[in-house]
Specification:
Layout lengths: L2 H16 L7 E5 L7 E6 L7 H9 L3 H9 L8 E5 L8 E6 L9 H19 L4 E3 L4 H14 L18 E5 L4 H26 L7 H12 L5 E6 L1 H7 L2 H7 L7 E8 L8 E11 L19 H15 L5 E11 L11 E3 L5 E3 L7 H16 L3 E6 L3 H7 L4 E5 L2 H14 L3 E3 L4 H5 L8 E2 L7 H10 L8 E5 L5 E2 L10 E2 L4 H11 L4
Parallel strand pairs: 1-6, 2-4, 2-5, 5-6, 9-10, 9-13, 12-16, 13-17, 14-15
Antiparallel strand pairs: 3-4, 7-8, 8-10, 11-12, 14-17, 18-19
Helix pairs in contact: 4-5, 5-6, 6-10, 9-11, 10-16, 11-15, 13-16
Length: about 525
């Protein structure tokens, strides 16, 4: 390779990695209905208009109400329809947005989905700035704005043609009584939306941009200036000193060494046990020596989604100043088939002292979490320990893209998380974890094996993780292999890729059960 070509190649990759992501969409609440490229107008069931809609109708001498009636738009929740703006209204087009019954009574998730769906429809229709005109208020309006911000997210960072860019800089929501919604949005919801945005960005990045150290660097920058935050990073040398042979073994085949990132948010009472959230952070998974099927390997950049959601949850809590102590542990490695990579049949010693026979180097996520969970459990004595991981194909096969798989030895914790999943949209389905699953991972060479014939997939993976958590610690495992990312749009996720799964659920769990306790 010539020196000139080397310089060009380095410049190319520096250019790629230095491209900045699109700024987060700013949501502004106001009562000032200004001129705009287009209005997204809330309409109640039966085509009824609220006070702001009536004001627009007066400007059009009744033509707006006539147009709504003529189209047959019924105003039901999650319905939208684009119509030309009648003469007298300072806009080219109006997007009708169904708000449901006048009396409201819809749950938070419905308003979030309504906002996200409307934002996506408005962005597609107007392409430029537009204004929501909403005759709702209070918590409903705040939740609508939250959903609109999530729904407006699009990972278009690497598009070079302007006509392919789908992100927008700002959303304006006009409402007569907006101040209560604005306060709730800024204090409670926008910090969660910001965290989900950062999480999606990190998960959607290609593996030449996000790897263990750059994951640490990016999230360190996101936490800069936030109160009650301290960050510790364990590098490969300290891993060896601490006996973390499981995570070190996964990362040793890559030129990009493993890291364990620990973010402490101590917003609660001094001395109170924290909630600990751990995440699998395989920034790219080739399968190692047990090489994956190459045609589907490209999306293994998402194998760090659990770590991104764990860290993102702490960012959400810190962003809204939650009165709680909480810790995120991101167990980060790149699983590569290099000359120094571990092999099937190797035996490694985890931080707990338990030995592990490597039956498949492609069952690597449970290895990095073995050390991450043991570290979190024994260091912090947590009031609850929850982990997220894109762990097994069998969880994806069982539950598809509708649910994350939930495993736990603790029924109260499991039932709480299941209920909150339904409320927040981060839905879970509980799968079995019993003594037979722990027997399935026993090994005749080492204490346990990370995979093997007869081991029942997702449940065996959960049992492996549970081996490194004390039975007295309230613990839950989310296997999010089927739901962490998707190319299918949903109301609060337009962009193909990461969902930022788990942040809304875990934020709600902490708020309801641990905050201010």
């Amino acid at each position: 390779m010539t020196a000139l070509f080397k310089i060009i190649l380095v410049a190319f990759f520096v250019g790629i990695t230095s491209l900045s992501a699109a700024a987060q969409t700013t949501v502004t609440f106001t009562d000032d209905m200004r001129d705009t490229n287009g209005f997204a107008l809330g309409v109640f069931e039966g085509g009824k208009l609220g006070s702001l809609g009536t004001r627009l109708d007066r400007d059009a001498d009744g033509a707006l109400a006539h147009a709504i009636a003529a189209t047959g738009f019924d105003g039901k929740s999650m319905k939208t329809l684009l119509i030309p703006a009648p003469e007298g209204i300072d806009a080219k087009q109006i997007l009708l947005v169904g708000l449901g019954v006048v009396t409201g009574g819809l749950d938070d998730l419905t308003y979030q989905n309504m906002g996200g769906d409307a934002a996506q429809a408005a962005i597609a229709a107007f392409k430029e700035d537009f204004t929501f005109v909403m005759d709702i208020e209070g918590a409903a309006l705040a939740q609508f704005g939250f959903g609109a911000k999530l729904g407006s997210y699009y990972f278009d960072k690497y598009y070079t043609a302007e006509d392919r860019q789908k992100s927008i800089e700002a959303l304006t929501i006009v409402a007569a009584n907006y101040r209560g919604a604005q306060s709730m949005f800024r204090g409670e919801l926008d910090p969660v939306a910001n965290a989900i945005w950062y999480t999606r960005d990190a998960s959607n990045e290609p593996a030449n941009v996000i790897y263990p150290q750059s994951f640490v660097d990016r999230w360190t920058a996101h936490f800069e200036g936030m109160e009650n935050i301290s960050i510790k990073v364990i590098d490969e040398e300290e891993m060896l000193e601490l006996g973390m042979g499981a995570i070190y073994g996964v990362g040793r085949g890559s030129k990009r060494p493993p890291r364990m990132m620990i973010i402490e948010y101590m917003g609660g009472t001094d001395g109170d046990a924290p909630v600990v959230i751990a995440g699998k952070g395989i920034t790219f998974d080739t399968g190692g020596i047990s090489l994956k099927n190459p045609p589907n390997m490209w999306n293994m950049k998402f194998d760090m989604s659990g770590a991104a959601s764990a860290v993102g949850t702490i960012h959400a809590l810190a962003g809204r100043g939650a009165k709680v102590n909480a810790v995120a542990i991101a167990a980060l490695a790149e699983n590569m088939p290099g000359g120094n990579a571990q092999r099937p049949g190797d035996v490694v010693t985890s931080m707990s002292g338990k030995t592990i026979q490597i039956r498949s180097t492609d069952a690597e996520g449970r290895l990095v979490l073995a050390d991450g969970l043991y570290y979190g459990d024994t260091t912090y004595n947590p009031v609850a320990l929850i982990n997220l991981a894109t762990l097994t194909g069998s969880a994806r096969a069982a539950l598809g893209a509708d649910y994350g798989a939930l495993f736990s030895r603790h029924d109260d914790l499991a039932n709480t998380l299941l209920a909150l999943g339904e409320k927040t949209g981060d839905t879970l389905w509980r799968l079995p974890l019993n003594a037979n699953h722990f027997k399935a991972i026993k090994n005749n060479v080492a204490d346990v094996m990370n995979s093997g014939p007869g081991a029942p997939g997702a449940s065996a993976g959960a049992a492996f993780l549970g081996t490194f958590v004390r039975e007295t610690t309230p613990w839950a495992h989310f296997d999010i292999a089927g739901i962490a990312y998707s190319d299918t749009a949903s109301p609060t996720k337009a962009s193909p890729g990461s969902r930022g799964f788990g942040i809304r659920l875990l934020n709600a769990y902490v708020k309801a059960h641990h905050e201010g306790k």
